[in-house]
Amino acid sequence: MIPQTLIMQWDGTKCNCLDTDLSYAMLVSLYTETFVRFGLTAVISVIILGVSCYKIIYWVHNTPPEQLLDTWNVVYLPGTTKEQLQAFSRPQGWLTTSLCTVPLSVNFLVISIYDTGYKFLCAVGLCTLNLDSSLYRIDRLMTDILLLLMPIIITVYIPALRELTVRFWQALTSLGVKLRKGECMVRDHG
To answer: Which residues cross the membrane (predicted)?
Structure first.
């Protein structure tokens, strides 16, 4: 963190903390980035994403299924047939692509608020940013969970990716059935 860099002094063998005699105003100015980031995440992002999610849920809930047309549903991969494009463009109901904003927002907000909140509490002086602490490990675990869930959420809500995943799974299970039945034999050409 930049503020910690500004208040640490390396003498070649150990770090001497310089923040013991700093005024509160100086510490606040050093930790401004942490305060601003927490405010943006905990206030501005919550408001913007909350309103967006509400409007999307309201739109999906109150629009008749046959009129629920989402232009994002027509996202396709190379090699997609016209029949698949027509299937993608049909109303998807609660699996419409725009609705992926809701789980992505919840995922982002929960983990980001925890992360910035933890750093904010450390900047205020209520805790210490310790890389071996359980709070820091939970923070890293939650970040990993965020990175794991994002592609899963996107795959579930985008019809082209969902269809690709289903086709892959069907091919994989078909191969497994063939292997169990002994239909796939390795032939020796030697």
So the answer is: 35-60, 141-160
